[in-house]
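seq/struct pair 1
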Amino acid sequence: MARVVLLSGCCKASSGGSAEMDVRYSFTTQFLVGSAMFARHARKIEDTTQSVTEEIQADHRAFVVSAIMQSVAAIEAEISEIIIHGPGHQLGSNGIDKDARDFLLPLANVLDDCSSLERYELVLHLLQKSSIDRGAEPFQSADILVRLRNALIHYKSVWGKELESKKLIKQLKQLRFEAPPFISKSSNFFPHKILCSSCASWSVTTAKEFINRFYVHLNIRSPLKPYESRLTVPEIRRET
């Protein structure tokens, strides 16, 4: 009997003694749906009328950091899917661009040495598609988001004055996110003021828009489209 292998909707047959089904799981949408959930939880805490304890503040910070981390993880996961399984991998076996997949797969190890956003650029270049404008949105925000994630992963506790001169901090300040109401005005901007529900919402929106824009350049339906309702986040509040 034929052995059926289901890989994210892609079927192929091989010889075997019985019918089997295998499934390949994609984490891109899971990461973003989770990030959106964390953003909503963070906003609920900011909007509470009750006293915000230290423990609740720690929960809030964890929600925002998780939203940032998983939003970048979604960006990284999706380009890996493209390189290994081919454009259209989410559409099933009939939707995969097999020629593009066969062209990209041998380059996977080389592309792995590049940053996540560079990998998106290189894939478009290799497939002779129009490039994403580095100097415009959503690339600019995606770049800031990735560097914010990196700053959190490799966090170094330094004095506030040392942070003021850093390019990333200046760019984050220009986003003018409203700080959590329970954070003292005298607190350092990074990490205390920037880790707000608006930053969490922006992270989800940035990752979603970047991935969707990439698929526009590929001229393929984005895998995020069916999950739009689950990617709803609180509005971004900015300082006046």
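seq/struct pair 2
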Amino acid sequence: MRIKLTSIMVDDQDKALRFYTEVLGFEKKRELPAGAYKWMTVVSPEAPNDTELSLEPNANPAGKTFQKAMFDQGIPLAAFEVRNLDGEYARLRARGVAFTKEPTSMGPVRIAILSDTCGNLIQIYQPPA
């Protein structure tokens, strides 16, 4: 058993696709019709055949309540590993990304937290060398 697909709720799939591809640098893997919405996934260009992230439409009232509560509490709903946290922080800041936590040491890892503009906080982290 292995994880090949995980999802994050977004308030607008097209806006999310632009953010996750044009700003964060992921690549679109799939975009298929699914009723009123789409099954839309992105992948890391470093591992295009690895885990896909589904940009899931947040049309469920319970999901919206959960997403807002997590955002209001400052809790990220996903975490992405980076090789150089300071470099990624500078690159994303230059692209206008809003951070709620600047690069910070948390034990053996360093983290930063950003807003994905679609209702979520995302943690980026650099593991120990």
